[in-house]
Every structure is written in structure tokens, then in C-alpha cells.
Specification:
The chain is of the alpha+beta class. The chain is built from five helices and nine strands. Strands 1, 2, 3, 4, 5, 6, 7, 8 and 9 form a nine-stranded mixed beta sheet that branches. Strand 3 and strand 4 form a beta hairpin.
């Protein structure tokens, strides 16, 4: 495994969230999260039942990515995000996850905007990439709003599902036990254009 650069310490303040490196003391809050009921998000439900297991989970993540906590200004852990495939200062790949009870409340957009500004301005990256499930319309809409462009589509094994398990609106992204995903990219120049047009 190729070693990644050390994760910079930071405290990124948005209008509603604060983002900082994920720490061991955050893990009990993640362990207490309610599971997602949406089958699309079920793979993000954790099945770790010990303190040692959680520590191993964070230790493994730190080997190949930079993990961050997304907290409310009141100190509640809302979710986490990470960067992997880190190629400074060219690009990295983003993954974002919010706790079930905090989805669709505007935290995701605030976290994304705040982190993107830090990523491009503070860290000096040239572009960001991410993968998103085609059936996740809410996430795709947000990414497009923030300036991400679709590069290509690919199919991911999802044999844990049957077509009968999925809501009807997901079926156009389902094919023989696989779910369609999209790779998306945001370049720094595009992000600055989005910021200028929004007045931020």
C-alpha cells in the first residue's frame, strides 16, 4: 500500500456545521446512530459491536484516507466524510455519509460547501472526484448544483438486494443484481465560478 500524506489538522466552519479530523472520541456517537431504513443506504449501517472494533475501523481508514467528522455547532456528530486516492495537489476522491436522523435537513449542503472551499482554497487541490449511486437523486442534484460534472457511469454489485426490495424509482438504475453509479468531477475553476455566481 502506498503511504498517503499526513492529514492536516483543521477546523472548518460552515454556517451550520464544523468539520475537523475524525477522532477516537467520536466513535461512540457513530456507534449509537440509528440504522438507515432506505435500502440504498443500508450498506452504510455499521455492524461493529465493540470499542476495540471501532478503533480498528478508524485505524484502517487512516491507512488510506483522511477521515473527517461533521458536527453541528452544538457539538452533535452529524456524519463523516473522507478523502482517498489522495494525489496532492492534483486530486482526491470524496465520500460523504450523514446519520439517518440528519439526512435532508440541509447539513449535507453546508458541509459540502464548507469542505470544498477548504479543499480548493486551503489545500490547493486542482480537482475533486466522487462516485454516487444513480438512484440517489438527492445527492446527485446537490453535486450538480455545486458544479460537479458527470464523467461516466459504471455498475456495482448489489446482490444483497432483489428488485422487489427497491422502491420503483430506483429500478431504472438496477440491472441483473447491480446498481448504476456515476463518477463525477469538480475542477477548481468551476468551483470558483459557482461561488462567484452564488455570491459566496
Amino acid at each position: 500500500m502506498t503511504a498517503i500524506p499526513p492529514q492536516p489538522d483543521c477546523s472548518i466552519e460552515g454556517a451550520r456545521v464544523i468539520i475537523r479530523p475524525l477522532r477516537v472520541r467520536d466513535l461512540p456517537e457513530i456507534a449509537a446512530w440509528e440504522p438507515h431504513s432506505d435500502p440504498l443506504l443500508a450498506p452504510y449501517n455499521f455492524c461493529i459491536d465493540s470499542t476495540a472494533g471501532w478503533r480498528r475501523w478508524l485505524q484502517r481508514r487512516r491507512q488510506d484516507r483522511w477521515p473527517y467528522a461533521i458536527k453541528s455547532r452544538a457539538g452533535v456528530l452529524l456524519g463523516h466524510l473522507s478523502l482517498r486516492h489522495i494525489d496532492c495537489p492534483h486530486s482526491a476522491r470524496l465520500a460523504v455519509m450523514l446519520a439517518a436522523r440528519h439526512v435532508n435537513q440541509g447539513y449535507g449542503q453546508d458541509a459540502m460547501c464548507s469542505f470544498l472551499d477548504y479543499y480548493f482554497r486551503g489545500l490547493g487541490f486542482e480537482e475533486m472526484r466522487l462516485d454516487v449511486c444513480g438512484a440517489n437523486r438527492r445527492a446527485r442534484h446537490l453535486y450538480q448544483k455545486l458544479g460537479f460534472m458527470q464523467l461516466n457511469s459504471f455498475w456495482v454489485e448489489a446482490s444483497q438486494f432483489q428488485a422487489s426490495d427497491l422502491p420503483e424509482q430506483y429500478l431504472c438504475h438496477w440491472r441483473r443484481g447491480k446498481l448504476r453509479h456515476f463518477e463525477m468531477r469538480l475542477k477548481s475553476a468551476r468551483w470558483w465560478s459557482v461561488c462567484a455566481s452564488s455570491g459566496s
